[in-house]
Design goal:
Blueprint lengths: L3 E4 L3 H13 L3 E7 L6 H5 L2 E6 L10 H11 L3 E3 L9 H9 L3 E2 L4 H8 L1 H10 L7 E2 L6 H11 L3 E5 L8 E4 L2 H19 L4 E5 L5 E9 L5 E13 L2 E7 L6 H17 L4 E9 L5 E7 L6 H8 L3 H9 L16 E8 L1 E2 L5 E2 L2 E2 L2 E3 L4 E2 L5 E6 L6 E2 L6 E9 L2 H13 L2 E3 L5 H8 L2 H5 L6 H5 L11 H23 L10 H5 E6 L2 E9 L5 E6 L5 E7 L6 E6 L2 E10 L2 E6 L2 E8 L1 H7 L13 E3 L4 E6 L6 E2 L4 E7 L2 E6 L4 E6 L6 E2 L4 E5 L1
Length: about 675
């Protein structure tokens, strides 16, 4: 067994590998760029070596720098994580030539399966069902249009060396093929240094289901069930679960056996994933094979009890698998929510900056045996950079059933408190409470179909609004009780003043009279507006980020942020501002005029920090609504900004190559 390994990656996956290595008694070496000098993976490793400037192509992607770090520290093996060099055969070959073990598959498998075009040719020759498409190299947009016409719309344009949703576009027309082809090539080159793309038929209403495989150097390969990854946005997975709510045992077995057969055909060793598209009749088609550890591997670990990173290390050291196929048992249900630094209220634009507060839910097993696991590479006070993937954490829950795992995830997301940057927790929390998710009726079009106009926050029903108003009253009551104990504040005031409250949420007003017990952790609210009595039980102290309690016996978790005259509350994807008044204050507040936001309708505002790639118009040009006017790159994604109205370009305030911040005016219209 190895005594020291180097992790050629960063962020949460580097921390994940370090955790298992320490459990196995193996020393670890981290590598870092200038942007990651204070990163969590650097802190957690036994040693750390700088490998270059912030840009990945000058640091984490430089093979010689990684090799030199191994030689400098005496690392005997390298775990590549995912992304970066994980599926790069040149990297595996360089390690081999330097006498350093690669904790991953052999070069033959990487070359056969790592290239999307070659893997489809290989799978087709091996008798594996593949999606119809054109596997040759495409040079010109005009050629791409002709191929798409032959295949039939819609089509998927994909980077040959891609992964993680980078360099992928769906096109429903010839114009969309032209635009998507160029954008996919640009993203592919920026992310992988390889601009080749191919085109295949896009199957309508598909489910994305993948099989986890595990092989050793002795010809033994098994599969560890499946993961459903259908909840995707821009071809980037957002929520994954294991097992799939759609597969029956016969389909699971057929897919698993086909994945194993394909793996054996390339002498596969280590952990890998065979991805399939599954139609509504459970027909499945080979999509690609990822010759590395997947981002979503924790859900497989939670339902099988197998530490995939440990198995990868043992396989690389030459050990045979200790598991046979009959030993693999799927137990319970696991869900993973990817927490990203992006603003769901602004079309999921990337968000960068400092994590002023970072308070994830407590990991571990609760009294019911339910599990919370949070794989992360950040910490409170750390910074989310523009240079890398926007992932903050992977929050996972396990429970005996899917419904229980979903409810456990909902509660965990409600308790996941982040300030300083924008994040997608409200969006993922809304998915967990969506009827279609809860029924398991999923396709890869779920997000586009259920949120066609983007995400504006979950809309509370009347009952939930009343519950949020009750929580705000509870919080205000606790703070007022504290004030009474400090220098006699509020002492001597009439009961009607100290116990009567009116809560404003949007245009709604809710009035309560508060009656508490002697312990102070339960209050009874008599609703003046609805004529209802509400019982709240909970523990909260002023300044705490989360209120946990129950309303009329039903558990509830709510994030709390202080605002003027009230609280901003978050629960289940619902993000509301509550204002808490006395009866007299409420009368006066209703008379206050509303402040209107500034008019920015004649400006193109940069929605994210990023780099201007191109400007498609000039001053004086007439633009139509929906016309592409600018491309901004952020976190390796090319974002097309479009005109929101018919107008004439009055001024252009940015040029290609410029670095912009959120709110910068790119151009003005008239």
């Amino acid at each position: 067994m190895f005594s020291k390994i180097l992790i050629a990656n960063r962020g949460e996956i580097a921390c994940r590998v370090i955790r298992t290595a320490k459990k196995m008694g193996i020393a670890t070496v981290a590598v870092y760029s200038d942007a990651d000098q204070r990163a969590l993976h650097v802190r957690e490793a036994d040693e750390a070596v700088r490998v270059g400037p912030a840009a990945a192509n000058q640091s984490y992607l430089v093979i010689d720098n990684i090799i030199n770090a191994c030689k400098e520290t005496g690392a005997e093996a390298v775990h590549p994580g995912y992304g970066f060099l994980s599926e790069n055969p040149a990297f595996a070959r360089a390690l081999r030539d330097a006498g350093i073990a690669f904790i991953g598959p052999n070069i033959k498998a990487i070359e056969a399966m790592g290239d999307k075009i070659e893997s489809k040719r290989f799978a087709d020759a091996a008798g594996v069902n593949t999606v119809p498409g054109y596997l040759g190299e495409i040079q010109l947009a005009e050629d791409a249009v002709g191929i798409a016409d032959e295949i039939g719309y819609p089509v998927m344009i994909k980077a040959s060396a891609g992964g993680g949703g980078k360099g992928m576009r769906i096109a429903h027309s010839r114009d969309e093929v032209k635009e998507g082809f160029e954008l996919a090539r640009a993203e592919a080159k920026a992310s992988f240094g390889d601009e080749r793309v191919f085109i295949e038929k896009f199957i309508v209403n598909p489910r994305h289901i993948e099989i986890q495989v595990l092989g050793d150097k002795h010809g033994h390969v098994i599969y560890l069930g499946e993961r459903e990854c259908s909840i995707q946005r821009r071809n980037q997975k957002v929520v994954e679960e294991a097992p799939s709510p759609f597969l029956d045992e016969a389909t699971r077995k057929a897919m698993g056996e086909q994945a194993v057969a394909l793996s054996k055909a390339v002498d596969y060793e280590s952990a890998g994933t065979v991805e399939f598209i599954v139609d509504q009749d459970r027909n499945f088609y080979f999509l690609e094979m990822n010759t590395r550890l997947q981002v979503e591997h924790p859900v497989t670990e939670l339902i099988t009890g197998v530490d995939l990173v440990e198995q990868m290390i043992r396989v690389a050291a030459g050990e045979p698998l200790a598991l046979a196929q009959e030993d693999v048992v799927l137990n319970g249900w696991a869900i993973e929510s990817r927490v990203y630094a992006e603003d769901p209220y602004r079309n999921f634009m990337p968000s960068t900056g400092r994590l002023v507060r970072y308070r994830p839910p407590v990991e571990g097993t609760n009294d019911d045996g339910f599990v919370i696991r949070n794989d992360t590479g950040v910490f409170e006070g750390g910074e989310i950079s523009i240079y890398y993937d926007p992932m903050i954490a992977k929050l996972c829950t396990w429970a005996p059933t899917r419904d229980q795992a979903t409810e456990h995830m909902s509660q965990a997301l409600d308790a996941f408190y982040i300030d300083g940057i924008q994040h997608n927790i409200p969006f993922v929390a809304a998915i967990m409470r969506h009827p279609r998710w809860q029924s398991g009726s999923l396709t890869t079009g779920f997000i586009a179909e259920e949120f066609p106009d983007g995400f504006q926050g979950a809309v509370p029903d009347a009952k939930t609004t009343l519950r949020m108003a009750a929580v705000a009253t509870f919080l205000d009551h606790v703070e007022n009780e504290r004030k009474r104990e400090i220098s006699g504040q509020l002492r001597g005031l009439p009961v009607e003043f100290s116990r009567e409250r009116t809560v404003q949420i949007g245009e709604e007003w809710h009035s309560f009279f508060v009656d508490d017990d002697d312990e102070g952790d339960t209050i009874f609210l008599r609703s003046r507006s609805g004529g209802l009595d509400i019982e709240l039980t909970g523990e909260w102290q002023p300044g705490q980020a989360v209120w946990r309690g129950a309303i009329d016996g039903l558990p509830m978790t709510v994030q709390v942020r202080r605002v003027i005259n009230g609280y901003r509350l978050f629960h289940g994807g619902i993000d509301v501002v509550t204002r808490v008044f006395t009866a007299r204050e409420a009368q006066l507040a209703k008379l206050m005029p509303k402040k209107l936001p500034p008019d920015t309708s004649r400006m193109l505002i940069c929605p994210m920090p990023g780099l201007v790639v191109s400007i498609a118009v000039e001053v004086g040009d007439e633009v139509k609504v929906g016309q592409a006017v600018c491309v901004v790159e952020a976190m390796k994604m090319q974002n097309v900004l479009r005109a929101e109205r018919d107008a004439s370009v009055k001024a252009i305030n940015a040029s290609p190559g410029a670095t912009l911040s959120v709110g910068d005016v790119i151009m003005e219209f008239e």
